[in-house]
Design goal:
Blueprint (H helix, E strand, L loop, with lengths): L3 E3 L1 E4 L9 H14 L6 H5 L6 H11 L6 H15 L9 H10 L3 E5 L4 H11 L7 E3 L12 H10 L6 E5 L2 H9 L3 E5 L5 H7 L3 E3 L7 E3 L3
Helix pairs in contact: 1-4, 3-4
Length: 218
């Protein structure tokens, strides 16, 4: 891959920074099971890269309205917190982010996860010092695949959408990044290369070691 000239990199969290997508899906499934709600794995997979609120809103409005969205999210968070002991960084992320920081590129964490989740993850892995700003579920009214989270990050960093790369692992995240007018690298931690290409990724990589960058000094 040819070197990509950049000033700013925006990172999704789950599946890009931390190897957590499977933990989120398991926590969502356990929450449904607790209320005897039947589901398929493909149903859960449709919400990879989307907010918990959107998932449980769908459940509440279309499957079972006996529990509030807020209570379902609290239950999911409790399951997720219990599963966090298994959490690790995505392989290659720490080496890559050190290279990014050495180049003095601007960075943001742009996640559909809640601030609660980000704080729990930070307590375990101390990831927040890697990023200049964070955007979480609570910071926007609209969530991925809408571009609002990435547009907010660009605004907060004082960056346009040129010399910017977004790194995502999900269809919804790629759609969000492309709608924000940015180049997007799709990392194959959650979906295969063909799926990420079909979603519109400009680059598809199996690991961070395949991503070659340099600082745009213009």
């Amino acid at each position: 891959m040819q070197k990509i000239k950049l000033k700013t990199i925006l990172f999704d969290m789950d599946g890009v920074v931390i190897d957590s997508e499977k933990l989120h899906l398991r926590a969502m499934g356990l929450t449904l099971e607790q209320h005897d709600i039947e589901y398929t794995q493909s149903f859960l997979n449709d919400y990879v890269g989307r907010s918990d609120e959107s998932f449980f809103r769908y459940v509440h409005e279309n499957i079972d309205s006996s529990n509030s969205i807020e209570d379902l999210i609290k239950e999911k968070n409790a399951f997720f917190e219990d599963l966090l002991k298994e959490l690790q960084y995505v392989e290659g992320f720490t080496d890559f982010i050190q290279e990014v920081k050495t180049m003095k590129l601007r960075t943001a964490l742009v996640t559909s996860s809640s601030l609660f989740t980000v704080r729990k993850v930070n307590k375990l892995l101390n990831l927040l010092p890697f990023f200049d700003i964070i955007v979480t579920e609570e910071d926007t009214q609209k969530h991925k695949p809408h571009p609002e989270p990435y547009l907010l990050a660009l605004e907060n960093l004082g960056a346009g959408n040129r010399s910017v790369l977004i790194i995502e692992d999900s269809i919804n995240g790629i759609l969000s990044g492309k709608a924000a007018g940015c180049r997007v690298a799709g990392l194959t931690t959650s979906f295969d290369a063909e799926t990420l290409q079909d979603a519109g990724a400009d680059y598809v990589i199996d690991s961070f070691s395949e991503l070659h960058i340099e600082k745009d000094s213009t």
